[in-house]
Fold this protein.
Amino acid sequence: MTSTLITGGTVVNADAAIDADVLIEDGVIAALGTAGQFTADRTVDAHGKLVLPGGIDVHTHLEYPVDAFTTHTADDFYDGTMAAAHGGTTTVVDFVKKEPDRTLRDTYLRRRETAEGKAIVDVGLHAIVPPLEQQASVHEDLKSLVAEGATSWKFFMAYPSQMVDDSELLRGFELAMEHDVLPMVHAENGHMVAREMDRLVKSGETSERSHKTAHEHGSEAEAVHRAIVLAQSVGTPLYIVHVSSADAARELELQRVRGVPVRGETCPQYLAISYEDYADLGPQAAAYLCSPPIRERSNQAGLWRRLQTGVLSVVATDHAGFCLSQPDDLPPQKLRSPGYFPKVPNGVPGVEDRLMVLWETGVVPGWITPSQFVDLTATQPAKLFGMFPQKGSITVGADADVVIWDCASDHVISAEGTHTRTDYNIYEGMRVSGTPTSVFSRGEHVVDNGVLDAHAGRGRFLSRNAPQIL
């Protein structure tokens, strides 16, 4: 592999920003130094730009089955990771849901093979823990998967086909602690959600806008509180995925102040988009439906405050892209049941837009600093999910996952200009001033000014280490 010198930029890590040249050799960062100190086979000019660690999105759903396997997301591992690369994300961690006719272990190994054959950037996998009634031997599978790099397991506290009860949560948390695994929870009270959905349907309130009503703040806050208490009783750390409610974030905050090792994740759609943006769109509001829901605009400041203080430690996407149209080669997509929200496939796109949206809505107005931006999008994800120091920082010896970031660009986000298969964009028309101009994955220049130079299968599967809970 040729050597590359990135010269003239400002290197931004989670702890500091310095003016330095970055020398890349054999796919890793070989040195940081002053101008003129190094020579290389190729030089990339970063004057006036920032040099950031590649983004790490630890919450994606690519070619992912939903609604009892009756449909799946539009992006496969090629489309999704290509879009990620264009947006400055060089690592994604996706999920494995047990297939009805396979064990969790068999499903995991099959999904790993699929990802390895298609991915543009590096990929890891979380294991989703099904209810014991679906696989009595699942705990044996989970233990065996730790050796395969599945050092994070997700538990659902909602959704009828995936929800585990408190006794299964406790046993799963105990197993995770025994094997140095980070448990993750989708924290909504499934019984509260189901009850409210039933009430809405019976009263004829089935339009897309009623989805938010079914997923009230209280159902999320209660589940966050309960999950933390259960984890604390066992003694395990805990990671709460896609926190959407400021009330739920407050529950996290109360426990973090007490020193409880719990970490929270939120997503760009909860910070930049609001219920008011889609409430009056009728069936087209299906484009915005995800769970937990995109909430009221007044809710956003509470999330930003918890990002500022580190109560929320990660910004991931929960990328689950569907189409509003119905391509012939895809199963039923967003508009398969207009006017009836319980049948709308849940999920929104965002893997390509995450860094640009967070920069524009977080760094530009001063909610977070550039170093906090790096921490939220790369360093903390790497630490929490067993990839640090290999990934997540611009330091000697780390993988050369590097993004040259132009803070003075002028770009308008649009569905037409993105690279996922999704035919709409919830950030349509947003003007952003920070964009990636060059993206390196393990030293390979995979995107240069919007042009992809990478092939399916170049991404590597990541067998991840134990989490670092600091």
